[in-house]
Specification:
Strand content of chain B: under 5%
Number of helices of chain B: 13
Number of strands of chain B: 0
Oligomer: heterodimer
Largest interface: A-B, 91 and 80 residues
Largest sheet of chain B: none
Number of helices of chain A: 13
Shape of chain B: globular
Order of helices and strands of chain B: HHHHHHHHHHHHH
CATH superfamily of one domain in chain B: MetI-like
Number of domains of chain A: 2
CATH topology of the largest domain in chain A: MetI-like fold
Order of helices and strands of chain A: HHHHHHHHHHHHH
Shape of chain A: extended
Structural class of chain B: mainly alpha
Chain lengths: 319, 306
């Protein structure tokens, strides 16, 4: 726009120069337009790339955004057939409901018991097993490692009937189903954990333990005081993987845990799934509850991602 | 290596041996045993019937095996093709020299990866709701108030829905892998190709893609195997439905969901544990073969590189 102003001023000053100037200006703007056009064309791929990235970002974030805004909207806003991307008024009523009317705290405790116990058993058992497989040489060592891999290819879901019988045989099904569930998770975690931690042990020099043992430490002490602290990244990464894996496991939990009248004996994901009723779903309560469940897990995941880089990549390397 | 007494080795291995024998092996062996019996829910006095269950599975006209397997393979092929395609396009877009703020784009695009999958599945079920779900609401903005895709009740739409969710969940992983591989492709190669007169398309297919293939192949096989045994996400959205005919499983009944519905489904009357076990063993053999094949391919490639 500002380029036109000198032309207008000149036009006002002298009438005869006007026609010349106008044609000159037109030539200039034409060539400028051509330059801009060419620049636009050469930048067109970049513009398209940005457009693509924006679309993919909306695709990536939309479900989370929608659920967060739905949790802040009143329940009634959601029963509408037209799109509402912003709550008309922000209210925490859904969160209040979730914390007061739903057994959210029971779900937290149940999930923590199951995942915590599974992780504890998984890490402790796999670290001694991994130590033996990494440091000792014995007949059947290679075979055990291959066997563990083969075991990992077997999805636990396939043996679901047998798990049911096993837990009822161990008398856990009715007395302590959460512990039974934790045992099943732990057994699955062991396979992954042993391989991962063994891979990390392999990168640690055995000379450190040998030196400690020359100085009078027992093997158990060398293992506890020297190897384990050095393997902390791999242990942390394995533990987090195990914990997060159990946190939202649905199939076995749904099979083993039978909901009581208000669902207080369930884990998170079963409780959340139960909220999605067959006929009508309280979307506002559902949205608030899923936000409550997701936040700690996503925070844990983001916090853990720094460990994953060292703990998993090194451990994942083959011997 | 440490030399120790045999007893010490055994002590270190004891916890893992006991757990694996009791909790991993017993159910597997029991399933194998069940697959050779005619055990059903109301038949406690069951017998050993040899290979009858497997024979029924493969030969009987009302066997669901091939329908369910076909459906699963179709799902795997469509999903994995889309993972590679969208992962690749996104990685190439982020790798473009003029694109700024790559770290921020990556962080935003990776959010689905960090979110707990089972919860996002339930959220997607909410988004797919016919009347109140925002996807149909967006459609109504463009196509009028009568628009609506019956996402969860039409077989094709339900299949598409679980494909969309799986793509949403998994393609960021491919983007990360491909972007990592792309950054190790020297820029000079592409420049040399363009000096020699190759256009952008040729540069990609003839120069970059062959160098990316070693990185893409293992993750493709890996996600084909995980998609094959996918359960939670699909089950929470469709539960294997919608069922369109009485004598066939629903349109999203993939192998694991089929297994689960046979044992726990609403329509499961007089559950035939023997038949289910033989289905499980068959699926395990297929999965084991795929895993073995993938590992064989993987070692051959790393040997070739070494």
């Amino acid at each position: 726009m500002s380029e036109h102003i000198p032309g207008r001023i000149l036009k006002a000053q002298s009438g005869e120069a006007v026609s010349v100037l106008v044609t000159k200006e037109r030539v200039q703007t034409q060539s400028r337009a051509a330059v801009l056009g060419r620049r636009f064309l050469s930048n067109l791929p970049v513009v398209l790339i940005y457009a693509y990235l924006v679309v993919m970002t909306i695709f990536a974030l939309f479900p989370m955004y929608y659920v967060v805004q739905a949790s802040l909207a009143g329940d009634q806003n959601l029963y509408s057939t037209t799109l509402q991307l912003l709550p008309s008024h922000i209210t925490f009523a859904n969160y209040v409901y979730a914390f007061t009317q739903e057994p959210v705290f029971n779900w937290v405790i149940n999930t923590t018991i199951v995942c915590g116990l599974a992780t504890l058993i998984g890490v402790i058992f796999s670290m001694t097993g991994a130590y033996a497989l990494s440091r000792f040489r014995f007949r059947g060592r290679e075979l055990s490692l291959s066997f563990l891999l083969a075991l990992q290819a077997f999805p636990g879901l396939l043996a679901i009937t047998a798990y049911y019988y096993l837990l009822s045989y161990l008398n856990l099904l009715n007395t302590a189903p959460l512990i039974g569930l934790a045992l099943i998770y732990a057994a699955g975690d062991l396979v992954f954990g042993t391989w991962n931690i063994k891979g990390y042990f392999d990168t640690l020099p055995v000379a450190l333990e040998q030196a400690a043992m020359i100085d009078g430490a027992t093997m158990w002490q060398a293992f506890l005081r020297i190897t384990l602290p050095l393997a902390a990244p791999a242990l942390a990464a394995s533990a987090l993987f195990m914990f997060v894996g159990g946190y939202t496991e649905f199939a076995l939990a749904n099979f083993v845990l039978n909901a009581n009248s208000n669902g207080s004996n369930l884990t998170f994901i079963l409780g959340l799934n139960a909220l999605q009723g067959t006929y009508i779903t309280p979307w506002g309560y559902f949205a608030a509850t899923s936000v409550i469940i997701s936040i700690p897990l996503m925070a844990l995941f983001l916090y853990a991602s720094r460990y994953f880089q060292t703990g998993l990549t090194v451990g994942g390397v083959k011997e | 290596m440490l030399t120790v007494k045999r007893r010490t080795i055994f002590a270190y291995l004891l916890p893992i041996i006991v757990t694996i024998l009791l909790i991993n092996m017993t159910p597997i062996l029991y399933t194998l045993y069940l697959s050779f019996t005619n055990n059903t829910e109301f038949n406690q006095e069951y017998n050993f019937v040899g290979l009858t269950n497997f024979f029924n599975l493969f030969n009987s006209t009302n066997s669901d095996l091939f329908y369910v397997l076909g459906l699963t393979v179709l799902y795997v092929i469509i999903c994995v093709a889309l993972f590679v395609l969208i992962g690749m396009v996104t990685a190439l877009a982020l790798n473009h020299p003029k694109v700024k703020g790559r770290a921020i784009w990556m962080a935003l695009l990776l959010v689905p990866w960090a979110a707990p999958a089972a919860i996002t599945a339930l959220i997607w079920k909410f988004l797919f709701n016919y009347d109140f779900g925002p996807i149909n609401q967006i459609g109504r903005l463009f196509f009028g108030s009568h628009f609506g895709v019956p996402w969860l009740t039409n077989p094709v739409a339900a299949f598409a829905a679980v494909v969309i969710v799986n793509v949403w969940l998994s393609y960021p992983f491919f983007t990360v892998v491909i972007l990592g591989a792309l950054s190790s492709v020297p820029q000079e190669l592409a420049e040399a190709a363009s000096v020699d007169g190759a256009n952008a398309w040729q540069t990609f297919w003839r120069v970059k893609f062959p160098l990316l293939r070693p990185a893409i192949t293992p993750v493709t096989i890996l996600s084909a195997i995980t998609t094959f045994q996918m359960f939670t996400t699909v089950y929470l959205i469709t539960a294997g439905g919608p069922i369109t005919s009485a004598d066939r499983p629903g349109a999203t009944t993939f192998v694991m969901i089929y297994m689960y519905n046979q044992v726990l489904g609403a329509s499961a009357a007089n559950i035939h544990y023997g038949a289910i076990a033989s289905f499980a063993i068959t699926v395990f053999i297929i999965l084991g073969a795929l895993t073995f094949l993938a590992r064989a391919l993987g070692t051959r490639r790393s040997e070739a590189r070494a």
